[in-house]
Amino acid sequence: MINRIVLIVVCIFWLVMNLVLYRYEVGDKNKYHSSVPIETVWKKVLMSPDQSSLEIFQSGRRIGNCRWIAGAGEEQMRKFLQSEEGEPTKNVIEKPNFYTIDFDGSLAIKEVKGNIRFYFFAVLPDEKSWSNVNVRVSFEKMNIIVNASSSNETVSIRIETPDNLISRRFTFAELSNPANILQSVGGPIGLLFLPELTSITKTNASATSKINLDYKSYYHNMTVGTTTLWVYRVEVSLFKRFTAAINISKAGEILKVELPNNIELINEAFVNL
């Protein structure tokens, strides 16, 4: 289980970085197949006035909790919501100087002593780019810290254990192949995950410079108890092997996330319904 936790951390970060790097190309390919433009959904998420508090389940068993907070300034969000609702505004709606994303939480699984704690923080100068990303994961006696800077076009990875310290820095060009990163980092983590990631990249040899990512976004009926809600649904497929789906409210709040291995993140307001 520990192996898969670290693998998920590396894969998610690699996916996020590549998604940003190739956003325009992938977006152009998919936008004509979406009932709702992905840009519209993303803007809703960034400007949401509410945080999303989620419970984490695997095969129906609660294993943790997490929290997603996107910030763009209270006054700017108020003006945005007024314009979306069609209310007249005398002032020109100001574009936020930047956005921030906070995502943190913890997991408790029997294979790991104590909780697994994770933290993701990102600064976005606008809706289509990012400037800094920080990821931290801690479990047992290991800390994994990842920092990325778009201005320097570098990513640094730091792995701390009681007996070892590994610190490496990579350029964006080197991010196209996560297997190379793990091999460079070395240690038990690299040895554990190199075969699986190598298998993925070999299966998708054409993706050495481009990720094979497909997504679609559309309106969806989400049933909660006896109530049906109109929500945005975004479905993502990576390498045609890993799939995920996210249900998002009209106000931009995350309601449900469906991940591989029967993992679900459910908004705490709906857990007991």
Describe this structure in words.
With 273 residues, this protein is an alpha+beta fold. The chain is built from six helices and 13 strands. The chain has a 13-stranded antiparallel β-sheet with strand order 8-7-6-5-4-3-2-1-13-12-11-10-9, with helices on one face. A hairpin with a 7-residue loop joins β4 (116-124) and β5 (132-139). It starts with a helix and ends in a 6-residue tail after the last strand.
Our estimate of the beta-strand percent is 35-45%
Mean pLDDT figure = 76
Number of domains: 1
What does the radius of gyration come to?
19 Å
Q: Cα distance, first to last residue?
A: 30 Å
How helix-rich are the residues, as a percent range?
Answer: 25-40%
The parts where pLDDT drops under 50 for at least 5 residues are: 22-33, 187-194, 196-210
Number of strands: 13
SSE succession: HHHEEHEEEEEEHHEEEEE
User: Structural class of the helix and strand makeup?
Assistant: alpha+beta
Shape: globular
Write out the strand line-up for the largest beta sheet, numbering strands in chain order. Answer: 8-7-6-5-4-3-2-1-13-12-11-10-9
Count the DSSP helices: 6
